[in-house]
## 1
Amino acid sequence: MKNHIVLGVDIGGSGIKGGLIDIKKGEMITERYRLETPQPATPAAVAATFKELIDHFDWKGPVGVGFPAIVRHGKALSASNIDASWIGVDITKLLSKAAGCPVYVLNDADAAGIAAMHYGVGKGEQGVVFMITIGSGIGSALFMDGKLVPNTELGHIYLKNNKEVAEKYISGNARKARGLGWSAWGKQFNKYLLHLERLFSPDLIILGGGGSKQFANFQDKIQLNCRVIPAGLLNQAGAIGAAYYAWEMETTKPKH
Ligand code: BGC
């Protein structure tokens, strides 16, 4: 693959963002390009916007895509923060056809976690590590000795006294909708993390997504036995991790 360059894309509820990623450095080497996610975000509409992004970069090589749902063997198996018509759709097939280049798709939080583990604060971390992303939803990625266990969906656990899944109370969107400041939200988020700690005894929890940029505003509310640190890498983690995943898939693919 030419110069270890892959196009990394992050499909989210409000924006579809991407840029060319240097896999050796784990850096975006172009300006990040962002398009509004079409509403409703149906498969056909998202595929058309995705093609626009490919055309913007005039890209012909491999593309890695982080997608906000369970992604099993390229297919969407859930749709909490995207249009329900995605369920059952072969995302890989749809986007490869739209782009005219090889596309590899994985869950968006798994992508952000991969970026943190390979290039960021998780580099070299052994044992049980979680990435929890705070955005429109709550995403999770689980790593054991650096190896990803995909599609953990820990934003969908139920907490005591809550009628709906955890992300309905503690995602970035839920915080805004409930009118909570970072401190009040931080207290509730700590309860959520404590529950995860009880269930999985992680060695480290890395916080990602837009909400993690506010870490300084709720850090004092986080009281766990394990280390909890923000990811850094800001908005580009999803695209960088997706690009790494695509590169890995391309380079390990059996040659005919
Ligand atoms: C979805 C996850 C996704 C997370 C962050 C959740 O609602 O179920 O698959 O990783 O949002 O986008």
## 2
Amino acid sequence: MKLTSICVYCGSSSGIDPEIIHQAELLGKTLAQKEITLVYGAAKIGIMGAVAQGALDHNGKVIGVIPKFLQIKEVVHTGLTELIVNETMSERKLKLQELSDGFITLPGGFGTMEELFEVLTWSQLALHQKPVGMLNVNGFYDDLLKALKNMVDKGFLKQENLEILLVDTTVDGLLEQMNNFKPQAMPKWLKASLDVKK
Ligand code: AMP
């Protein structure tokens, strides 16, 4: 699958690990060099700012999406190729999804987690068939990945659904996995329910 735009979910804080900031900048730079549009939450601060700056510094195309009420709190990046302002967080998330061929999660907090788990859930429900990746920098997500494996072991998450999430420790490795991504067949129960509605 040729990816022309990727949405990056990541922290509005910078965290304390300089390697995470470095990898965010590298991701932005790599997207720019591969002529893949960066779609993200429009902030100039935190890891969000680092990924955007990495792309812009290498002449990349960057689209930011932000709801009106966050425009000040998250300090909007004024140098973006395009800025889309909407009303609500839900509209923002939908727009980020619509504009993107795939999703990458870098380290972040609650907001990042919500965005990641929404695209994973929507993939599980076959509402989209786009690759969902996670850049696991310096083991940042090791404990979360263990928790997800525990959900499989305890019967709350199907192994095949866990495998929707493509995890890598390098930008190049992750992009390669996403390029090779083949969507899963629609789950039988969902196909049956869609057939009933026809
Ligand atoms: P955080 O990981 O908490 O630093 O948040 C990262 C980004 O997610 C920030 O741009 C937040 O505004 C955004 N965010 C937080 N909650 C939501 C939400 N419910 N819908 C859309 N974006 C959100």
## 3
Amino acid sequence: MATQDNNRFQAIIAHAKEYGFVFPSSEIYDGLSAVYDYGPWGSELKKNIRDYWWKSMTQLHENIVGVDAAIFMHPTTWKASGHVDNFSDPMIDNKDSKKRYRVDHLIEAHVETLSKEEGNVLIAAMDKLLAAEDFAGLKKLIEDNKIKCSISGTANWTDVRQFNLMFKTEFGAVAAEVNEDENIVYLRPETAQGIFVNFLNVQKTARMKVPFGIAQTGKAFRNEIVARQFIFRMREFEQMEMQFFIRPGTEGDWYKYWKEARLQWHLSLGIPAEKYRYHDHVKLAHYAKEACDIEFEFPIGFKEVEGIHSRSDYDLSQHQVYSKKKLQYFDNDIDETTGKPYGNYVPYVIETSIGLDRMFLLILSQAYDEEVIPREDGAAETRTVLRIPAKLAPIKLAILPLTKKDGLPEIARAIMNDCREDFYCFYEEKDAIGKRYRRMDAIGTPFCITVDHQTKEDQTVTIRYRDTMQQERIAISDLRALVKEKIR
Ligand code: ATP
């Protein structure tokens, strides 16, 4: 990671805290590792991202509906999904520092110190060993490359072991004296399974016809071994997932469709295409047909923000086996090759899965700008501005009376009352106008208006645009429509 970018990342983290976006969880007790709280503007931005995704999936797709499943699920769900047996990462401990590393992260961090060619060779070797689950081979790879612990500086490693990432808790009031295992429930590590187990409920009640999708947003929990990098990797986070149920045999086309459609969703926010790239998976789960990540260039490098996975009928079939209930669909469309209906089958699934918190970090990373601007006295100053897309900005319009007297606050309040039903407005009369503008820049408010003495004469206000800092006069009567148009 270049120092410059690390500085930028640290500046974004500090800004997020100072301006009410993200706080460390339970900070007065020194925080909880990899758990974060969203502040006033952070929770608003997060909600806006969630709404934008939700609307694009459900309201704008006639064949996608939503669910809101519980976080707790029957424990057999996680047996069926494979999480109890397989949701683990190989990890290794340094015997001197006692620090635990995820093997792939340890090797990837080392790769950053190598030349591109050397790094590629090492990554290829690692991918091969991970795919073969060759733990002894992975340890040898770490030793052969003389990879050291960043804390102790030694290469005194334990063997590589698997570590399950699911959080367990006890269900109900029964204490441990009875069979402990019977009371164990897990905090869901992904939202997808709440969709799969409800497949038939949704299909029947919403009268859906294949192909159709089910969308869900909600919390997921993973006991990540290496949890750092701010909200990029958290132990409690939020996912936005959509499972698209299709006829077997059509998965190639639908996978292509969703791979492209999801990238277009990102680009629709006005983020330059060169900040994104696909990473096609080489190592696939045994049931997976194809899988890729959409990666974004964060200040810490290109990293996954979303996954698109062609999952075959694996999940529904597994739930059929474990629940002994049929999860099939009767397709009465005519198969042209046989001239008969397609009949009963377990649908195949294409999944799109994006982390809400990662998307939040993406928006902050893209929006954060320290811009040097000339001051009136000829000197230069730096303004920190969040160029958040207007439709996602926490506050859309700041309403600022120039002074606290002469009837200006009353006019400003009337404008506020007129607009607040349609979009989030913010009223402020304290401090010089320049200072108020800067505060609004720092939280990404795209439009500010100033109510001044001329307003009393001609019913106009000065509107100031965050990105260009340009100002113009507009009639109060045009204001609401103008802002609504810009945030559409
Ligand atoms: P990674 O390789 O980064 O651990 P993953 O491939 O395990 O991620 P998925 O299981 O495909 O991730 O989850 C889908 C999305 O959920 C990811 O693309 C990411 O945006 C988000 N996500 C996964 N784990 C976390 C986490 N610990 N903190 C924040 N977001 C996460």
